[in-house]
Amino acid sequence: MTRHPVRRSASFGAAALVLALVASACSSEPPSQVRSLADRFAEALSTQNVAAAAEITSDPAAATTALDGIYAGLGGVGSASGVTATPRFTVSRTDEEQQTFTLSASWSFTPTDDDTPESAASTTDTPESTASTTAAATSTSAAPTATERVWTYTTEGSVADRGAGLQVTWNPGTVVAGLTPDTTVRYTTLAADRVPRVLDASGAPLMSQQVVTLVNLDASANAGAVAALVSPFAPTVTAESLGESLATAGGSPVTAVTLRDEDIAPIESLLAAIPGVTLSKQTRLLTDNRELTSPALNDVAAVWQEQQDATAGWAVQLVGPDGAPTQRLTGEDATTGDDIRVSLDTLQQLKAENALTALPNAAAIVALRPSTGDVVAVAQNAAADAQGPVALTGLYPPGSTFKTVTTSAALQAGEVTPETVVPCPGSANIEGRTIPNDDNFDLGSVPLTTAFARSCNTTMGQLAVGLPDTALRDAAAQFGLGVDYVTPGLTTVTGSVPPATTPAERVESAIGQGTVTASPFGMALVAASIADGSTPAPVMIVGRPGTPDSTPEPAPAQVTDEIRAMMRETVQNGTASELRDLDGLLGKTGTAEVAGGPAHGWFVGIRGDLAFAVFVAGGDSSAPALAAAGRYLR
């Protein structure tokens, strides 16, 4: 069993330090001098008033030193562990003749999320720190309730009159059972001998706990010398960036970079030799393949950490003058948690990441298995990473990819069939809103399937005018859009489709503009719903599907069959025809106008048991998203 001392990075939060004492019999007589002094001593200890407690002992200096060490080691005032402790001492018994008293103590430790056997889990190697950027979301996995850890014992104390009135005879064992003048006491967590891993969909190792080194420097360090050594592993770290970080820190040390063992090895001694540089070892949960990154892994790491917290052991130790534990006073051994298997497919993930690397704008790909809801890939490029987990929680107008929803609503309303001939003029004034097609292309009158495949805005706007206020919202919910999930290991937002209460609002919503928003995850869920015929519950941790906040009935099977056929036509003879060489591909392109900048580009696709969405912010058209989809699939 490995025992790890508490470090400043591990916090035990609101640990209640309670020295609860067995109640003594009530008496109408005034308390004796022994009882009165013992009560004062207990009260001072309960309030962590070291000065007051030490003052009434026979050796205030020794008492002060010992009490400071007790509170620091177990989580009271001044604790390096970050524990918030609330002690309570009560005298349980006194013996007036022997001038002794008895305390019954109960220390209650309540760990928080930071109370871990090692440092907090992290999944990425970043230049400045290993903290991941997160965005606001409406669904996440619930945090576990902290487990209370309790230690109880009784101690004996004595009082004596040494010429200045009664004093508590100082003995550290009166406060903590077993404590001596040569020892102090410490609360620590215990890790299991084997640390669980995160496995991918195939059962292959995906993430494991690894040792990393934090390269810290203060204002006296030569930033240029540090940057020259670490830049081969972290190209964004420069003398200028380090100088800015130090200036912002106002004289406090900063972490220049966090490096894996294989990276620090050739430069460790050189870095250590630079004045003002300190190296700090920690453990982090990292991907085994350093090329693999995903915003989804941050939530997976949180699930892994929850399991570590739940299975971690703890101990209260006597500690000798050299800082080494000499005796375990109480505690529980750690247990080994199970490996955590996730739905991510390593090959699909790497393919998705590689498909985005060439794009300068923020871009994301999310892919699901329609038959199971398994999330097989969540990829972003560096520009997207700088904005947070946009693949899962970024909300954008979905543009023409939303025509899958609009067409479904129109088909369900009985307004049209796929063969119905509908007008597709280059532009149309609909309810006072001029709707143009891309470059004002004009198809005249064509079957609905053709209007869908060629992405006629004018057709869709006209179809939506006569729909009920909630028709688009309800049709979107049938495909999972606007439904949110609490999914273990995955924080997501699908999107929002408010009711369109006026014809003008319905025109805007019909083409994925106005108040309609969707995340890349949300549009991947739409594609998966069309592929499967109903919305699959998303899965990240195998065996733990997400729970929806609502469960709309799926769209009629005939309608989803017809939407799939239209998406096939889109690839064969419509706006996604550049991907027609990909057998079995169904898809829908989208361009979404945004105020003050170029349009966003989208592509949602289905190929066998794979449904996905590609998003490119500011792509100006769907072309970059189509190209990325081609790279991903090929």
UniProtKB/TrEMBL annotation:
Pfam family, one: Transpeptidase
Signal peptide from the UniProt entry: 1-25
Residue spans of biased composition, Polar residues class: 99-111
Annotated SUPFAM superfamilies: beta-lactamase/transpeptidase-like (SSF56601)
Region described as Disordered: 92-148
Keywords: Signal
Ranges of biased composition (kind: Low complexity): 118-147
Claim: Iron-sulfur is one of the keywords in the record: no
Penicillin-binding protein transpeptidase domain segment(s): 364-620
Keyword Signal in annotation: yes
Gene3D superfamilies: DD-peptidase/beta-lactamase superfamily
The protein, known as: Penicillin-binding protein
Organism expressing this protein natively: Rhodococcoides kroppenstedtii
